[in-house]
Design a protein that fits this description.
Largest sheet: 6 strands, mixed
Structural class: alpha/beta
Strand content: 25-35%
Distance between the termini: 58 Å
Strand order of the largest sheet: 8-10-11-12-13-14
Length: 471
C-alpha cells in the first residue's frame, strides 16, 4: 500500500519514481515524469512577474502540474470554473484582474504550461521544503447555481486539511484503485476528490473527465478496480443510457456530491454495480461537512459529520450551523439548510433559500418538487421563481413559479395524445391537493433533459433560458 503524503509535501515526494500516478490518453504517466513537468513549469513561471495567475486545464493531470508549479512559485492561484469569453474577459480588468494565464486558454492569453510528459528525470526532482499552505492563496468560484459564480478565498492549508480528513476517515479505500470522475477539477469537489486526494494517497487518477455513459462504462472496465467520483445527475441517468451490468464488479467505491441523491437512485446503482455510494454533504464555502451511505432499510439515512466538524441548529429557523477547520475562522457558519439533529447526526429538512413568497403566500420549492416527483408521469423536475412579463409596466410585474420537467414514458404518451395544456391542467389538479392555487406553477416546460453544469448541478441562468420562449 503506498504511503500517504499531505498535498503540501508532494514537491518532496520520494515515493517510487516509476509508480504510475495517472493515465492520460490511455498512456501511463510516472511520478518522475510528473515531477519533471512541475519543475519545467516552475522554471517558466520564474521568468514571469505578477502574483495573480489564472489556472485552467482540460485534464486533471495538467491541472495538477499547474497547481503545484504556481504554489511553488508563490503565486495567488485563481481557478475559474469555465472558459467562457465573457468570464475570462472579467479576469483582465478590475478587481478580479490577473497577471497571467496558465494552461488551456485562448491564444490571446499567456500559455506556459508544459505537459508533454515525455521527458522524465533519471531520479526524482525533489524540493527540500514543503509548501507553506498558510501562505498560498487559492481563489475558487461557486458553481453559479443561484446566480453568477462568486469568488471564494481559500488557503491551501484548508484544502489540505480536507484531504487529510478524507484519508483519515477512509484510509484504505483508494488503495489499489484508479480514480475516475465525471465532475470538473475546476470546482472544489473535483479538485479535492479527483486531483488532490489521489496524488496524496499515491494512487493513479484518470486525467480525462468522463461525460458520456458509454465512455464511463468502458473506463470502469478498463481501469478496474475503480473509485468513481460523480454527481447525482450522472448516477440518476446511468441506468437509462448504459449497460451497467457489463461494469459489475469493477467498482471499489462510488462517491457522490453536489446535491441530494435520491434513495431510489442510490439503491439502484449500488445493487447493479455491487458497490456502496458514499454521499458527501458540503458546499464550496464550507468544504465537506458530513457523509452517509443510504441504508436499504430507511429512505432518509442521517448524515455523520466528519471528524473536526461541530454542528448545531440556529434557534429560530433551525438552520444547520457548522464550525470546522475547513473554514477560514473559528466562527459558526450558517447553512441555507434546515436540519434536525439527533445523537450527533443530522437529517436535512430542505433548503431555506427555496422557501419563497408568491402573492404573499409562502411555498417551499423543495416540497413542490417532491410532490411532482411522486407522480408516475414525471421522471425529473426543477422549479424556480420567474418574473411574469405579461405586463409591460414593471411596477405591476409579479413573481410566478415555473416548472421544468422531464417526463416519464407515461407522461410522454399523455403529452403526445392530449397536448401540453391538458397535461398542465392534470398536474395542477394534483398539486391543488397540497398547495394553494396562487402558488402553483404558471409556466411549464417539458424537456428531454434538464440543463446541468460539469458538477451535475442546476444553473439558474440555464433554467431561466428554458422559459424565455413562449413554447
Amino acid at each position: 500500500m503506498p504511503s500517504y503524503l499531505t498535498f503540501e509535501q508532494l514537491l518532496c515526494d520520494s515515493r517510487n519514481a516509476d509508480d504510475i500516478i495517472a493515465w492520460r490518453h490511455n498512456l501511463p504517466i510516472t511520478r518522475a515524469a510528473f515531477q519533471q513537468a512541475v519543475a519545467d513549469n516552475i522554471s517558466a513561471l520564474q521568468k514571469n512577474t505578477g502574483r495573480r495567475w489564472a489556472l485552467y486545464a482540460n485534464d486533471a493531470l495538467t491541472f495538477a502540474v499547474g497547481l503545484l508549479a504556481l504554489a511553488a512559485s508563490d503565486k495567488h492561484i485563481v481557478i475559474p470554473g469555465n472558459r467562457q469569453p465573457g468570464f475570462i474577459a472579467s479576469l483582465t480588468t478590475g478587481e478580479q484582474c490577473v497577471d497571467g494565464f496558465l494552461g488551456d486558454f485562448e491564444n490571446t492569453h499567456t500559455k506556459i504550461i508544459t505537459t508533454a510528459f515525455t521527458r522524465a528525470a533519471s531520479a526524482p526532482i525533489l524540493f527540500t521544503t514543503p509548501l507553506n499552505g498558510d501562505a498560498i492563496e487559492i481563489e475558487i468560484y461557486t458553481s453559479g447555481t443561484t446566480g453568477d459564480p462568486k469568488p471564494l478565498q481559500k488557503k491551501l492549508r484548508q484544502l489540505c486539511r480536507e484531504i487529510d480528513t478524507l484519508h483519515a476517515t477512509w484510509p484504505n479505500e483508494l488503495a489499489g484503485s484508479t480514480v475516475l470522475g465525471t465532475v470538473s477539477h475546476q470546482h472544489i469537489y473535483g479538485l479535492l476528490f479527483r486531483v488532490m486526494w489521489p496524488l496524496s494517497a499515491g494512487v493513479p487518477l484518470l486525467a480525462e473527465m468522463l461525460e458520456h455513459p458509454t465512455d464511463i462504462c468502458h473506463a470502469l472496465r478498463q481501469y478496474a478496480p475503480v473509485t468513481f467520483i460523480s454527481s447525482p445527475a450522472h448516477y440518476k441517468r446511468l441506468p437509462e443510457h448504459a449497460d451497467l451490468n457489463s461494469a459489475q464488479g469493477t467498482l471499489r467505491k462510488m462517491i457522490s456530491s453536489g446535491g441530494p441523491l435520491s434513495y431510489d437512485a442510490s439503491r439502484t446503482i449500488s445493487e447493479i454495480l455491487d458497490a456502496p455510494i458514499f454521499e458527501i454533504f458540503g458546499s464550496s464555502e464550507t468544504g465537506g461537512i458530513a457523509y452517509r451511505i443510504q441504508d436499504e432499510r430507511q429512505a432518509d439515512t442521517p448524515w455523520t459529520p466528519f471528524s473536526g466538524v461541530d454542528i448545531r441548529l440556529e434557534s429560530a429557523s433551525h438552520a444547520l450551523q457548522i464550525r470546522s477547520a475547513n473554514l477560514l475562522d473559528a466562527e459558526w457558519f450558517t447553512m441555507a439548510d434546515a436540519a434536525h439533529i439527533e445523537d450527533g447526526q443530522f437529517r436535512l429538512l430542505g433548503r431555506l433559500d427555496r422557501i419563497v413568497k408568491i402573492e404573499e403566500k409562502r411555498i417551499s420549492l423543495d416540497e413542490l418538487e417532491k410532490q411532482l416527483q411522486r407522480q408516475s408521469l414525471i421522471h425529473e423536475v426543477r422549479t424556480l421563481v420567474l418574473q411574469n412579463e405579461a405586463s409591460k409596466d414593471a411596477s405591476t410585474q409579479r413573481e410566478i413559479i415555473g416548472a421544468a420537467i422531464v417526463l416519464s414514458a407515461a407522461g410522454e404518451k399523455i403529452l403526445q395524445a392530449q397536448g401540453k395544456h391538458a397535461l398542465n391542467q392534470q398536474l395542477r389538479k394534483i398539486l391543488r391537493n397540497y398547495f394553494e392555487p396562487v402558488t402553483l406553477p404558471r409556466k411549464w416546460r417539458y424537456v428531454k433533459q434538464l440543463p446541468v453544469n460539469a458538477q451535475g448541478k442546476f444553473v439558474q441562468t440555464d433554467l431561466i433560458a428554458l422559459f424565455e420562449s413562449e413554447s
